[in-house]
Write a structure and sequence with these properties.
Layout: H1 4-12, E1 21-29, E2 32-40, E3 42-45, E4 48-51, E5 85-91, E6 95-100, H2 101-107, E7 120-122, E8 143-144, E9 147-148, E10 161-166, E11 171-175, E12 180-184, E13 192-198, E14 207-209, E15 218-220, E16 222-230, E17 247-248, E18 253-259, E19 269-278, E20 283-289, E21 292-298, E22 312-320, E23 326-334, E24 341-354, E25 361-365, E26 375-381, E27 388-391, E28 399-401, E29 404-406, E30 409-415, E31 422-426, E32 435-440, E33 453-456, H3 462-476, E34 480-483, H4 485-492, H5 499-512, E35 522-526, E36 547-548, E37 560-561, E38 583-587, H6 592-606, E39 634-639, H7 646-661, E40 666-671, E41 678-680, E42 683-685, H8 687-699, E43 703-707, E44 710-711, E45 714-715, H9 723-728, E46 737-741, H10 758-764, E47 772-776, H11 782-796, H12 808-818, E48 828-831, E49 843-849, E50 853-856, E51 859-867, E52 879-886, E53 890-893, E54 905-908, E55 912-915, E56 918-921, E57 924-930, E58 940-941, E59 943-949, E60 955-960, E61 964-968, E62 980-985, E63 995-996, E64 1001-1007, E65 1023-1026, E66 1034-1035, E67 1040-1043, E68 1046-1055, ...
Parallel strand pairs: 14-28, 15-26, 33-34, 33-35, 35-38, 39-40, 39-43, 43-46, 46-47, 49-60, 50-61, 63-70
Antiparallel strand pairs: 1-2, 3-4, 5-13, 5-32, 6-10, 7-8, 7-13, 9-10, 11-12, 16-24, 17-24, 18-23, 19-22, 19-24, 20-21, 20-23, 25-31, 26-30, 27-28, 27-31, 29-30, 36-37, 41-42, 44-45, 47-48, 49-51, 51-57, 52-55, 52-56, 52-59, 53-54, 56-57, 58-61, 59-60, 62-64, 64-68, 65-66, 65-69, 67-68, 69-70, ...
């Protein structure tokens, strides 16, 4: 039987199944199909519930012929846009459109070259592309029949014009069961587009169809007409496809008028109402026409539940006797509870009219006479002399219908067809005008081959995307293709924005690869998208459309997903259903600057960057800005509290997996409930957790994995990560990948750029943040989040089938495929480059010599060697290795701070005995240190963690944990003196009392004959104390590293952020391994951020003959600077200019090199020249300074 708690849970969700359930779903991805079985192992009985305790599952494989059939769609080898002159023009509603000589001239058509017979118009009509892959759509532009004045040959004169049938972007569809037409408003465009060309071949022309012969057996003298009122004014929850219009709140009643001239009063009009209401009690709408009314009830919602359904919608049908040609539809909202509100989506009306022409153009149709084998006679009244009737049933092959006139009646007969005919009657001269968009360059996506990475990027951001693309080509051999959304729309959605067009491009590549298996791998959406796909709110920034669900009122069921672009099998697509076939990422950038910052970050993540602290030549601080560093060995796990420890338990499950399967990585566990909770005015907080997360970001970590609650403004109810925290980070080079198994943390589709979510802020942060985020954009559920998180972690650290480590796109694709089919997983997105690979170390360090037991105060030497990926010793490897020696695992416990939190134990191996730096020569290394007195004296296994690199592009890691730490050495050298401490801020030229900005960098050099204690034993930490605040010491153990091949000295580098103005005293306290203590203090003054200033501008050598180097100091540390160097002759002529972008952690910038040549590469003559440095910071402030130099040749 189930437990009492389980029974209570089943009761709470209304579980009622009396049978155990087994069901399956089948999905296909990249040519492979699989079934996922779902088992509900509980059933309800008269006495309660029964649980399934064991079972045997039998299944049979059945061949499905559909899996081997040809792809649904066939694609031309080339697009019609590949050659010739092309011009785009757009239409807003169904009608007959005219293009005159003046119009073509305005388009840019060279009319002197135009032969009228070769004018062609291509386009695929109105309406959205189907989301479902197996539904029909054109795979390239189709030619439309048009009418051209004159004799359809010769030159196009000023009196000539052409006519074509243009459509609305919105579509009406006949529903035979209800005998009405229903409409669909285009979600991405307010126009339909067409393409004009000439000179290619004779164009398709509208043909004439004579009146059919024979006796008619159907007469049509009335037709079905329709209209709708729909204003998309607001998206009620900022999610989903469906927008709403008029609000019923202060105003509870509104009237809407529809005109149907010559309405048939004997035939009821049909009215459909789509509306929504938010009310704590059942409310209703009343619709009234000509004294006839109907009430439509709307269920209530729980208005006190922030994550619950926001409102309920109803779709109601109302049949009325038309009182007149003018239908005034009165709609009222009947409020039943305080605060109740209603919204109108649309009112759609179907009515029957007598077939009498009204207006300039009149469309008519009558589905009642559809079906083959009939002769149908149409009888129209009121047709003006000179009018025409076109059959537009097939928009590509419009037919001019001939007719006969008898008195006031116009008649024609046609042979009926399976579907009904659609006609338009229009008078001469009563034409619509298209919007002229201009010339379209030739393009040919249909002829392009499959590439590893497709980047969809708007023209505005293309330069930055090309910079990333070239980096991937040059450094990783990937094939990369850039394509703009408009180029895709031109070939796949007739020139209008439509999200399915982008998906269809990828499906073309996918279908063509079905035989070769060379499937497209990665898609990067290089541009932001919002839920406002048509820019109805006017904020802009919607470069690449977003897929929104049909569900638009429930925050729990409505989501945005980029998966849609990668659902490429024939049975997938509708409402984003199916298994993803591509690795997809997005850069949610809105400006060129944001694009540049993001690309800079990605390149910075992959490229080697080393250097000294700006402002000092002291080699002790070499490499502090390296992105090749031992943070690549760290995995940080952050777990929320509460919820019966579910987040803690899930993080522990991941931790145990990593420890058992990938012990080379060092785990840092930041579990909220293991920290002291503090009650503040705004609620409970974990200030030490904020500090720990901020510290980990600034130190760096390969991956930070968060499990728990979150929102657009940060993580956890206790606000453990806030906007202010993000602003404080300065991890310019050590950028983590950030996994957030939480809710809506990285919602990127808000139209207002001032409402960026926390996740987006982290990704866009130019001087830090994350290199990529696997993250959520909407509400999510703990178990499905963990399912994906667990799959991600299980795949992130093992090679794929091709032997390579996965790229981020592989990870999100594989993780989603292996996880459940829950729609909840769709809202996980990758903010980042799907072709980027995490910074996995490549080579391996192997320990060859280590004592079997390490004892306190024992001098220990450890030796090892470097192995290449093939497992053999890398005798050609020379570089530096960074060993970290950990004490035994320690047991910690949570504190049950909150309701729903339980006391639990967990292990962590975090106490550092030694963190050093040693030379590697010909693949061999050795290092020596003294074990601190402050070991944990129980017996257990320690761990050696290695990170190493060759100073160029090879790095690696390794570990060893088969040695004991216990006891004290029998013979050791006594030491009674504490460490010698040298203390600075920003650079080693600092003097006590100097001024700094609000973000100074602490630099400390420590030296002791026995080495420095970093164990973290109570009272023996390396700590910094500001202004004698001993209650809030800053623990710096993890920031200490011994010098190269010397355990007796080392350095601490620690960045401060956002210090307030004022006087400060900084005291540093450190212990040696014998527990001797020393302190050192320094005073400094924090001033407000001053204006940008340049000092110490010089070139060296000066004079010079071959090459010189320019350098300067400035007062803007932690700032990205644009630097331009200009060389002038004494007569004021600029002879050379150079630019570079630099990020200065301190107050100096790297020197700029010049070889004494001008802009053309010619050596300048000897003499005196002026040089000027022009500098501006990211906020736009610009300063310059000028000095002299001399060339001597």
């Amino acid at each position: 039987m189930v437990t009492a708690a389980e029974a209570a849970l089943l009761d709470s969700i209304g579980f009622s199944s009396s049978e155990f359930r087994v069901y399956s779903d089948t999905e296909t991805t990249r040519g492979k199909s699989w079934s996922r079985f779902h088992i509900v192992p509980v059933r309800k009985t008269e006495g309660g519930y029964e649980k399934l305790v064991s079972f045997e599952l039998n299944h049979e494989l059945v061949f499905d012929a559909k899996l081997n059939q040809e792809p649904v769609h066939q694609y031309p080898d080339a697009s019609v846009l590949a050659s010739g002159n092309w011009f785009r023009l757009c239409t807003g509603k169904d009608g007959i459109y005219q293009l005159t000589y003046q119009d073509l001239n305005s388009l840019g058509v060279n009319l002197s070259q135009v032969d009228k017979s070769t004018i062609q118009i291509y386009g695929n009509g109105g309406g959205m592309l189907p989301e479902a892959n197996d539904e029909f759509r054109f795979t390239d532009l189709q030619e439309n029949a048009i009418w051209v004045s004159g004799n359809n040959s010769g030159s196009f004169t000023q009196s000539d014009y052409l006519l074509f049938y243009g459509q609305s972007p919105d579509r009406w569809t006949y529903e035979p069961d209800d005998d009405i037409f229903t409409h669909e408003v285009h979600s991405y465009s307010n126009e339909a587009c067409y393409f004009l060309t000439y000179g290619r071949q004779n164009g398709k022309r509208i043909s004439s169809r004579p009146v059919a012969q024979g006796q008619h057996n159907e007469t049509v003298n009335s037709f079905y007409d329709y209209a709708f009122h729909q204003r998309d004014l607001q998206n009620l929850i900022g999610s989903g496809k469906i927008w709403y219009g008029e609000l019923f709140d202060v105003t509870l009643s509104r009237s809407f008028s529809f005109s149907f001239p010559n309405i048939v009063t004997e035939k009821n009009a049909h009215i459909r109402l789509y509306a929504a209401a938010r009310s704590s009690a059942t409310s209703s709408f009343t619709i009234e026409v000509g004294g006839q009314s109907q009430v439509f009830s709307v269920p209530n919602v729980n208005t006190g539940l922030s994550t619950g359904t926001f409102a309920r919608h109803i779709v109601g049908d109302f049949s009325v006797v038309p009182p007149s040609d003018e239908l005034n539809v009165n709609l009222s909202y009947n409020r039943t509870a305080t605060g109740g509100r209603g919204w109108l989506n649309y009112i759609a009306v179907n009515a029957k009219r007598d077939l009498v022409m009204t207006g300039d153009q009149m469309f008519f149709r009558n589905p009642s006479v559809r079906g083959e084998g009939k002769i149908v006679q149409y009888e129209l009244g009121g047709v003006l002399t000179g009018s025409r009737i076109w059959d537009v049933s097939d928009p590509l092959n419009v037919v001019n219908q001939q007719f006969e006139i008898s008195g006031n009646t116009t008649r024609f007969k046609i042979a009926s067809q399976e579907n009904f005919n659609e006609f338009v009657v229009f008078a001469e001269g009563d034409y619509l005008k298209p919007v002229l968009k201009g010339q379209v360059p030739n393009q040919n996506l249909h002829a392009s081959v499959v590439h590893d990475l497709i980047i969809v990027v708007p023209d505005l951001l293309k330069q930055e995307a090309e910079r990333l693309a070239q980096f991937r080509r040059d450094n990783y051999g990937l094939t990369v293709k850039l394509v703009s959304p408009q180029e895709i729309y031109n070939e796949f959605s007739s020139g209008v924005a439509d999200i399915s067009a982008i998906r269809n491009l990828m499906k073309m590549y996918y279908d063509r690869a079905s035989e070769t298996g060379n499937y497209p791998k990665y898609l990067l959406l290089f541009g932001n998208g919002t839920y406002d796909n048509k820019n109805l709110l006017g904020f802009g920034g919607n470069f690449i459309p977003t897929f929104q669900t049909l569900s638009s009122l429930s925050p729990a069921n409505s989501y945005i997903t980029d998966d849609f672009f990668g659902l490429l099998d024939d049975n997938e697509g509708f409402d984003a259903q199916g298994a993803i076939d591509l690795g997809i990422g997005r850069f949610p950038v809105r400006t060129v600057d944001e694009a540049r910052f993001v690309v800079d970050k990605i390149l910075r993540y992959d490229e080697r960057i080393d250097g000294l602290i700006p402002g000092t030549d002291d080699p002790r601080y070499a490499g502090m800005v390296a992105n090749y560093a031992d943070w690549r060995n760290v995995i940080a796990l952050v777990a929320d509290d509460g919820d019966n420890n579910i987040h803690f338990n899930q993080s522990e499950q991941i931790a145990n997996f990593m420890t058992n399967n990938h012990p080379v990585y060092n785990l840092e566990k930041i579990y909220l409930d293991a920290y002291e909770q503090v009650t503040m005015a705004g609620g409970s907080r974990y200030p030490d957790v904020n500090i720990a997360i901020n510290s980990r970001f600034n130190q760096g970590t390969l991956l930070l994995n968060y499990i728990g609650h979150g929102g657009v403004r940060g993580l956890a109810h206790e606000r453990i990560l806030t906007f202010d925290d993000i602003l404080s980070w300065g991890n310019f080079y050590n950028l983590p990948v950030f996994m957030t198994a939480t809710c809506e943390f990285s919602s990127f589709d808000q139209p207002d750029a001032n409402e960026l979510s926390a996740g987006v802020r982290i990704f866009l942060k130019p001087n830090g943040g994350a290199s990529a985020l696997f993250t959520t954009t909407r509400l999510a559920w703990a178990q499905s989040n963990f399912t994906l998180n667990d799959a991600f972690m299980r795949n992130a650290f093992i090679p794929m089938e091709n032997g390579e480590m996965p790229r981020l796109g592989d990870l999100i694709r594989i993780s989603k495929v292996q996880s459940s089919s829950s729609p909840n997983l769709k809202n996980f997105v990758l903010l980042g480059d799907p072709s980027m690979r995490m910074a996995y170390p490549q080579y391996n360090a192997v320990t060859t010599e280590v004592p079997d037991t390490l004892k306190a105060l024992q001098e220990v030497t450890i030796s090892g060697e470097i192995h290449n990926p093939g497992g053999t010793k890398a005798t050609d490897f020379n570089g530096i290795i960074y060993p970290t020696i950990y004490d035994k695992k320690a047991t910690f416990n949570t504190l049950a701070n909150s309701q729903g939190s339980n006391v639990a134990n967990f292990e962590m191996q975090s106490r550092i005995l030694y963190r050093g730096k040693a030379s590697v020569t010909n693949g061999e290394f050795s290092f020596t240190f003294i074990v601190p007195r402050d070991i944990s004296y129980n017996t257990g296994f320690g761990k050696i963690s290695y990170y190493f690199d060759d100073g160029e592009e090879i790095d690696g890691n390794g570990y060893f944990n088969q040695f004991i730490i216990s006891g004290t050495a029998d013979d050791y050298t006594h030491d009674n003196d504490g460490p010698v401490i040298s203390l600075y801020l920003n650079n080693t030229n600092f003097s006590s009392g100097d001024k700094t900005g609000p973000d100074p960098i602490l630099l400390a050099h420590l030296e002791d004959e026995s080495g420095i204690n970093t164990t973290g034993q109570i009272g023996h930490d390396i700590v910094a104390i500001l202004n004698d605040d001993t209650f809030n010491p800053i623990v710096l153990n993890n920031f200490y590293q011994a010098d190269l091949d010397n355990f007796t000295s080392g350095r601490v580098i620690y960045p401060f952020f956002n210090l307030e103005e004022g006087n400060y005293t900084l005291t540093l306290r450190a212990w040696d391994v014998h527990n001797n203590v020393s302190t050192e203090s320094v005073d400094f003054i924090v001033t407000s951020a001053p204006g940008l200033d340049i000092t110490e501008l010089k070139n060296f050598p000066n004079p010079f003959s071959d090459v010189t180097y320019f350098s300067f100091s400035h007062n803007k540390p932690a700032t990205e600077l644009n630097v331009r160097l200009e060389i002038y002759s004494l007569n004021g002529q600029m002879v050379k200019s150079m630019e570079q972008k630099v990020y200065a952690s301190g107050f100096n910038v790297p020197p700029m090199e010049w070889d004494g040549t001008d802009n053309g590469g010619t050596l300048l003559q000897s003499g005196i020249y002026l040089f000027r440095v022009v500098v501006n910071e990211e906020r736009g402030e610009l300063v310059y300074k000028t000095e002299k130099l001399m060339i001597l040749r």
